[in-house]
Amino acid sequence: MTACSIVVILILLGTIVVHCQNETEQSRSHHLWGKIKHTLAFDSRQLNSEEMLLFPDVAFQSVNDNRIWRVMIHGWKYRTNRGKYWLGSHATSWLERLARNLLNPSEIMYLNGSINHDRLRPFFVTDRMNEDIQITIGNQTQTIRTDQNGEFYDQIEMTNDAIQTLKREQRNDFLSYEARGNNRVNATGVIQLIEPSEGISVISDIDDTIKVSEVLDKVRLLANTFISSFKAVPGMPELFQQWKSKNINCTFHYLSAMPDQLYTLTQEFIDENQFPSGSFHMRHFGWAAASLFNFLHSKSTSAHKISYLHFFLSNTNRTFVLIGDSGEKDPEIYGIITREYPERIRAIFIRAIKGESFNDQRFLDAFQGITKEKWLIFNDPKQVPIDLSRAPRTSTK
Question: Transmembrane stretches, by residue range (predicted)?
């Protein structure tokens, strides 16, 4: 496939977006876990009128004052397309014809299914900016305002007594809360409680680390994102399950550059493959970005991950395990963070997706100054140790 063909595809897809934005005014969610999943009543894929999505986030007990918790809230408010149902079979057929005209026969296999409308719809909505969202957790209420992308971020300070009461009432380390927006738009979210000093936190990338995405290939990325069923990297669900069961107070946090418009489907992927429940920290995709591929490979991807890693490390005294892949900048990002917090990072695991060896110069550069016993390059999850209290074995690959 030529670079010109790829550009044409991306430009025409962008034309669809503009057409949609001109025509529009600009269920339930798949279960999360335990009793909390029964409280959810939103499905981001149905997209009827105004909706609100709450991303699973975290609450930290203050490292300086154990009487205080800081509860992080992250959500998205938007209005769905009330215009014609152009995003139907006609759009799918048009895109498929477009692909066949531009790709050679051997490449069509990557686009051999129908465009999945469930994955396209969250991208064709109007963000609700400057709207007040009322957050209620326990007996405490706080109002947050949406930004230009319709998203809202804030923290609510709560006493340890209030958090412990909620924990006893809900009998879960994931506490539920309620969000109320304009036009009677309500949603239920979840917060993961993070003890400040005891236990290990696993920070995991998603694409090409636990989910097959093939981010480096534009055509395959398009197919894996909007057509094919999400597929787990073989052996990774079992590895994460063993980490959860074999390590005391082990929490999981999914840190990804992928669009948060795909959160609901990604949460389904996590649930269906029995990855441990955890918080999600994705990025919001705006159509000002040139393409999904450029969005994933932009400088802001590294900034996004580094910012969240600093956030986790500065708010706890816990130790951390970082797991990612060699497709993007995970080795370099994790190397930067480990040199800044050498005593806090227990281990780094990098899945080699391009056949690299342990002694590849890129890894030696990325992990310069970090003892080799602390990082491991692997291509089979069975090479990764289960006991996270110990340093990883040195790869012999």
Answer: none
